[in-house]
Amino acid sequence: MQHWTLDDIPWDRFDAARVDPELIRIVKAASMVEYNGGDYGRYLCSVFSDDADFKDAAEGWAVEEIQHGAALARWAKLADPSFDFEQSFALFKRGVPIPVEATRSIRGSRASELVARCIVETGTSSYYTALMEAAQEPVLKEICRNIAADEFRHYKLFYGHLRRYIEQERIGRLRRVLVALSRIAESEDDELAYAYYAANGGTGADYDRKRWTRAYARRAYGFYKMHHIERGIGMVLKAAGLKANGRLQRALSRLAAGIMQFRLARLERSGV
After folding, report:
1. For the whole model, what pTM was predicted?
2. Which of 129, 167, 193, 225 is the most exposed place for a label (fewest CB within 10 A)?
3. Would residue 3 count as lying in a domain?
4. Whole-angstrom Cα distance, residue 187 to residue 120?
């Protein structure tokens, strides 16, 4: 199947009257995280240096991630002509460097690295689906639809290689669960907070991790609905080697939704 390009996006349908200002802020941040896929691709190719099949897949994945960032940045520029992507991205890269020359996974093993990649793709697939459904502006809706489909396909790509490495490394289910939990906990690490900071205030404010994490989360959490959470929990369980549907999936989905709603209510009261 031929992959979409920037030329396939109906840029002429951009409707400024239907732009949500809150979406502009998180799209700016997302554009930098996605565009940084080039460095993530280099990291993965270094860690899997002797695996030609995976390196080919990682290089193709990185090209698509960069395109995601380019599409989001172009839309953000339409929505806010003052947005300087190049300047913001340079600041982001200085603040969140990636160990592109690493020869071993920061997760401890290749299988663990692939579990973590599945968790990331779970989050992005759910995130862009939520944004697509929330967006009223037609060009952003189309961009998010394309990206969400790509991220789900990327999940399947990494999961396919994960199955191969599970057989090679004999990684246990407990280890997969622990890696998955660790990567989920990192969803509020410096990457997203710093991207939000670099995109929305980096040239005129000092970086305060707590402040910018809360500012990002208040805007992002509100777009999630129960069906996004249920689907994401199922994908996480599958990557961790557990049953993707059933009582555990339903219970964890309710728990995750409750935590997100509680956190969102606190953030909204704080006015960040």
Report:
1. 0.93
2. 167
3. no
4. 9
